[in-house]
Every structure is written in structure tokens, then in C-alpha cells.
Fold:
Amino acid sequence: MTTTLQANENEQYSRLFSISLTDGLFVLILAIAATLRLGSLGVLPLAGDEAAHALAVWRYWQPPEAQPAVTALSPAYFSLTAGVFALLGDGDVTARLAPVAFGLLTVALPWLWRERLGTAGALAVSALLAVSPTMTMVSVTAGGDAMAVAALVILFIAWMRFRAGGEERWLALATAALGFGLATAPLFYSGLLTLAVTWIVQRAVGMADAESGWGDGVGIAASRTRWLLLLAATVFIVIATFFLGRPAGVGDATAQLAQWLGQFDVLGGIRALALPLLALGRYELVVAILGAGAIVWASWRGYSLPVLLVYWFAAALVLTLLQQGALSNVLILVLPSYLLIGLWLNHVLREPASDARWGLVLTLLLLGVIAYFNGARYLRVMTTSPLQLSFLFLAFVAVAAAFVAVNFVRTWDPGAAYQGALVGVLILFLIYNWGTASWMLREGGNDPREYWSKVGADDDLRMLERTLQEVSWQATSSARDLEVLSAVDTAAIRWYLREFPNTIIGSTVPPGATQHAIITPADVEDPALGNDYLGTDMGLAHTGATSSFELPVTLSDTLRWWIFHEHPALVSGERIILWVRSDALE
Structure:
């Protein structure tokens, strides 16, 4: 009896330790995701659509006579950010808080599906989402895309859990996610369409079973349908209308559907066709390599759920080709790929293997670091010493040694070789993605040489705001009462001049203008001003055909850009001149 009790206690302690270890790893992943996102919230200024989204929210809290009518580009973003502005004030950081919250929610969601993904699979998916360059970028971008991604993941996981177990709470959650997602962004319609196509295909090929989660195992009673529709409609209306405070939000949400339909374009040209695929290879190399391996594994094994995710990926790929140039569709490609990789990893780790797998993991990590740094060193010296091949030789030796190590372990323990190789390569990709995400969040997000950045804001916009505040203190003894005239009208300019109520924004500068500060385009001749002014040249936006895809660059140029962020092209863009009246500076 004593032996039995002691065995039970040991088993309980072992289970408790296992739970605490996995939970600790999950918390660590969330901490990494939060650090990566929150630490970069205010680094880059708002640009383009970001400024337009934030400006719409800010205008809502201004007197109606002082601001034009408000149009919310994303009703869900508007409703949630309007509350943030009311509580914490308006600014670049608070304009991005709601997307960051939903980005972190997306990282946490795989843990809700760990019964199907497995503990290892759920941790892997969350880790991939935590350091994904595309997911981190969308998480710190003012707009509704991060909310759309979170709504899609909730909808998918909740529906799968409902079909597997029949619990109505999951059905209600899926319905609420549907209603919420319809108010987020056009991206949600892309995800919804691909999921619908996936459902149609899996039923057409006869893959309807409870294991896939999309079969006929659990049905929805007709009497519940109207309550589900009511729930979805209620969530949609509440979110779209800022909790019934802005009825026009329903119209704004409807306009998103029209915007999404307008994205269908099969005649956009080679660049528009290739841009999402090039972005996938640039930022999500793990999808191109491990994702491809997971697709092969799923197709070979024929398991229902992995094959279902393959269908989802294929539907997203077709949609990407039909909506040429819609870069956000890369996110729809990433979601099923990450889930597939998680299922693949969990399946591999369930097979028995010796502890040699962890030795192989450490060996592959060491060899991967050697190959990376020697390859990077060769890229650095090849411009001046192209025949110095010693670094390149060491990189190839490290790669060859990795293949030898895997095959050596495979000769006496195939399971350990399979597990060690997959885990080691996955960790290397996580490290690589972390570095790429950090670069995009701090500098690359506003660099037009990156595929993700179409038009980036110049850091001088914040200097413009600070300069005007200092001039305002000198001229009016107030930080806001400065008279400003701007002949440049962009969403970014309006956002950074929002705190100056005595601002006039137009297309030209009238002759004899005497405002304290005047902003003109840099390519305009000296305006005929009614006083003495001092001019300062400043940057406005990073634009122009300067991406690596549009320029005749070599493979080595591209690799140096990826690793060292050095590019043969220079960033071009729009510039402005800030004219300050001389007496305002005295």
C-alpha cells in the first residue's frame, strides 16, 4: 500500500512539473512577443494608412464644427482605439495599442487548441507567431489587419473545437468572431473566403469526419441558427458603431467589402503577381522550407486535419494570385503553414527516440551558427576580395557536417535523427525570424527597399512637430497657439499638426501670407511671403521605385540587404520646407 501511494504521489509531482514547465515555456513565448512588439511601438512614425486610421479616431473627439466628417477605414480599429484615446490620450503609441493587443492574442490562441495540436505543436505555433516578421509588423500597424487575423484564428479554432466536441460555447465564440471580423478589415473577407473554399473542397473529396473537425459529427440545430445570427449581428453592430455611439460605422464596414472586391485583379503585371510571393520568401522563409516539408508530410500521410490545412494554404495561394498586389494576403498563407508545422512537429516528437536527438539539436545549432557567420563574412569581403573563398568554404563544410551528423544518428536511431533535425532547423528559423522582425519594427518598416513598405514616413515628421511646439512657445507663450499654414496635404501632415488648432491646410500659399510657420513642398519655388522667413528642409515620406525587386541587383546584393541591410540603391522620397517667420524666433 505504501509503495502504491508513493508511486501515485510521484506521478502527481511529475505531472505537476510537466504542466508548470510547459506553462512556463508558453509564458516565456508571450513575454518575448510582448517585448518585441511593445518595445517598438513608438519607434517609427505613423505613415500613410496608419495616419489616416489614427486621424479618423482623433477627429471623432473634436468639436464637429472644427473637423470634417469622420470616415472610419476600419470600424473595429476605430471603436477600440477611440476608447484608448479617451483613456490614455492620442499619440503614436496609443494609436497602435489595440493592434498590439490583438497581435498578442493571436500568439496565445494556439494554446486553446493544444488538445489537437499537442503541447509541442501549440508551443511551436505560438513561437512562430511570436517572432514572425509579418505578424509582428501587422501587430504594430495602426489599422484593422491585426484584428482580422485574430478573428480568423478564433473563428477557425473555435469551430474546430465545436465540431470535435459539440460544446456550444465554442460555437458561440466562433459566431462572435465572425461578427467581430466583419468590422475589422478587408483581409478578414480573404480569410473567410479561403476557409469557405476549404470546406467545400474537403466535402467534395469525401473527407467528412469528426477527426477533421469539418465533418458531420456534430450538427447545428435549426432552432439555434437564428440565435447565432442574432449574436453575430449584435457583435458586428456593437463593434462597428463604437458601442452604438456612431451608427455610420455600419456603412464604413460595408465599404470594406467593396474595397475587398476591388482588390481582385489578374492583370496587374508581373511585379504585382510576384510581390506577395517575394514577400513570403523574404519574411517567411520558414514557410517556404519547413512549410513545404509539412505539406509533403501531410499529403503523404493523408491525415484529415493536416490535409485540411493543405487545402486552406492552396486556397490562400489561389486568392493571392487573383488579388495581385494585395500584400496582406501573405498573412493568410502564413496561418495554415504555421499550424501545419506545429502538427508535423507534434507528430514527429510523439515517436519514441533516444536522447541523442538533443545532442543532434545542439550540434545543428552550432553548425548553423558557423555556416551563417562564415557566409555573412564572405558576403562582406567579396566586394573587395571576391577570390577569398575561405569563409565560403567553411560555411559549406558546416552545412555538409550537418548532413553527416543527421545521417550518422539515423543509422542507429532514425527517430532521434528525424526529431533532432526538425527541432534544430525550427530553432534556427526562429532565431532568424526574430532578427528580421526586430529590423522591420525599428527601421525596415518605413524603408521602401523592403517589400512590406510601400510608402514610409520620414523621422523628420516628429522633428517638425517638436520644432513647431518650440516656435509656438517663443511666439505665443503656448505650445499650441501657433499660426500654421501648410500647402502640403497628407494624412501624416494632418496627424502631426493635429495639436495646432490655428492650422490652415490647402494646396497653395496665397501671396503675402504672414503665418508664424508655413509648410511648402521642397520642389516649389520660393513663395511670395509677406514677411522675412527662414526655411528648413525636412523629409516627409519615403517613396519611389527603390525596392530590390525593381532594381537590377545581384543575388549577393540581396543577401547583403537581408543580413547587413546595405543596398546599392538610395532611398528617395518627398521633402518639404518649413518656413518660420523671423520675429517668431526672437
